[in-house]
């Protein structure tokens, strides 16, 4: 009796529904598997930083399996073929995995299921990506939601599942001779490189971050702290939620513990605001599940007809953080150097690319996926479509002024100077003016603004009116 647990974006053993289900089967052997799928690795929505982060998680997961008596096997190739081969080589009669919401992942999983079942192998998928399955939340008319606020109201009212137990012991197989497994590849083996100083990966680090955020004032002060990119006001858990080094039920339980400990209404609001972000994550999963076309096109038909500019020079300036708008440039440098960007800044740079440079949001979406270590189709696409006025936002016309945003959210210019050290020495007024004197720019090899925000936003609005 052998069960394979196929790991994909659940790179942990704690609070893992697929592993818990398999642990409950008496006397069965359990083997973990992870497949490096060239179709994913070669896509233009994946970058070296993200893969490096993932490899760190996998290294730790391999050790975790060994520590509880089993093994995590690494395979390379097409998943249907690899899993069929692995199941036959191990004599496995079950394959368990935690489900995904991305259209390509769903198609792949359906193909795997069909092929394995045709060979007499039982296949089971579990809910793990969110607290609730994407189809567990519906309007009274049994329709999917398209607007966040009613989704949130429904989501928050639903009882939340408890974390699954961490398995203490698994029964591994006596030998793996017949299996064409590979050892954990290096980044170079997978033909990636990156120049980012990425965050620490793995399950232990995820739990440390969760505790640090929820046991401290972090979560209690979240409502005030989350919008100031110079402050450590958010959890930094996104790459861990992306790769599942922490279970979402474990995350929820930490918010309940925090909530039980506080008395003041203000602090409860901090916790509730953070839960709203967890619900945003699930809202974007929900809509991607029901409207898979979001992955390829603007949701609003009007925006499918919008005339974007082809402008490689502007795009490159945006990517490199050389637009002459310090808040935009600081944010892009943070992304390029660390693989992470503060949420406020993601909104600012996305608005700038689409509303100031009039460049198609899909170019920005792709660049983010190549650079972010938390790059996640549902959240990233949702964020980009929201910023580009092309998504489900009921108030779609939002244009951020990069100058007003900097004044409001980085009033001391602290964040700007952290990422643009060449601007040190300027007065605060110069930094936040949106118009650094040209001689100062020249001296510092920093560009003057490549576009005029007021002119460009008018242009955007005109084109928006034109496309009916
Ligand atoms: P916290 O503020 O501590 O929030 C906790 C968790 O909630 C996050 O880790 C994340 O999983 C989730 N979350 C928070 N805000 C959002 C949101 N607006 N939408 C969906 N989930 C959210 N998030 C990603 O995880 N991957 C992406 O690829 C991604 N791309 C984005 C692109 C754009 C243009 C925008 C505007 C936002 C994007 N976000 C993305 C959402 C958000 O910026 C990040 O989740 C957040 O900055 C991560 O930091 P944190 O873990 O400290 O978040």
TrEMBL record:
<feature type="binding site">
    <location>
        <position position="222"/>
    </location>
    <ligand>
        <name>FAD</name>
    </ligand>
</feature>
<comment type="similarity">
    <text>Belongs to the DNA photolyase family.</text>
</comment>
<dbReference type="GO" id="GO:0071949">
    <property type="term" value="F:FAD binding"/>
</dbReference>
<keyword id="KW-0285">Flavoprotein</keyword>
<dbReference type="InterPro" id="IPR006050">
    <property type="entry name" value="DNA_photolyase_N"/>
</dbReference>
<dbReference type="GO" id="GO:0006950">
    <property type="term" value="P:response to stress"/>
</dbReference>
<dbReference type="Pfam" id="PF00875">
    <property type="entry name" value="DNA_photolyase"/>
</dbReference>
<feature type="domain" description="Photolyase/cryptochrome alpha/beta">
    <location>
        <begin position="1"/>
        <end position="131"/>
    </location>
</feature>
<feature type="site" description="Electron transfer via tryptophanyl radical">
    <location>
        <position position="384"/>
    </location>
</feature>
<feature type="binding site">
    <location>
        <begin position="277"/>
        <end position="284"/>
    </location>
    <ligand>
        <name>FAD</name>
    </ligand>
</feature>
<keyword id="KW-0456">Lyase</keyword>
<dbReference type="InterPro" id="IPR036155">
    <property type="entry name" value="Crypto/Photolyase_N_sf"/>
</dbReference>
<feature type="binding site">
    <location>
        <begin position="234"/>
        <end position="238"/>
    </location>
    <ligand>
        <name>FAD</name>
    </ligand>
</feature>
<dbReference type="GO" id="GO:0009416">
    <property type="term" value="P:response to light stimulus"/>
</dbReference>
<dbReference type="Pfam" id="PF03441">
    <property type="entry name" value="FAD_binding_7"/>
</dbReference>
<dbReference type="GO" id="GO:0003677">
    <property type="term" value="F:DNA binding"/>
</dbReference>
<protein>
    <submittedName>
        <fullName>Deoxyribodipyrimidine photo-lyase</fullName>
        <ecNumber>4.1.99.3</ecNumber>
    </submittedName>
</protein>
<keyword id="KW-0157">Chromophore</keyword>
<dbReference type="InterPro" id="IPR036134">
    <property type="entry name" value="Crypto/Photolyase_FAD-like_sf"/>
</dbReference>
<dbReference type="InterPro" id="IPR018394">
    <property type="entry name" value="DNA_photolyase_1_CS_C"/>
</dbReference>
<feature type="site" description="Electron transfer via tryptophanyl radical">
    <location>
        <position position="361"/>
    </location>
</feature>
<dbReference type="InterPro" id="IPR002081">
    <property type="entry name" value="Cryptochrome/DNA_photolyase_1"/>
</dbReference>
<feature type="binding site">
    <location>
        <begin position="374"/>
        <end position="376"/>
    </location>
    <ligand>
        <name>FAD</name>
    </ligand>
</feature>
<keyword id="KW-0274">FAD</keyword>
<dbReference type="InterPro" id="IPR014729">
    <property type="entry name" value="Rossmann-like_a/b/a_fold"/>
</dbReference>
<feature type="binding site">
    <location>
        <position position="274"/>
    </location>
    <ligand>
        <name>FAD</name>
    </ligand>
</feature>
<feature type="site" description="Electron transfer via tryptophanyl radical">
    <location>
        <position position="308"/>
    </location>
</feature>
<dbReference type="InterPro" id="IPR005101">
    <property type="entry name" value="Cryptochr/Photolyase_FAD-bd"/>
</dbReference>
<dbReference type="GO" id="GO:0003904">
    <property type="term" value="F:deoxyribodipyrimidine photo-lyase activity"/>
</dbReference>
<dbReference type="GO" id="GO:0006139">
    <property type="term" value="P:nucleobase-containing compound metabolic process"/>
</dbReference>
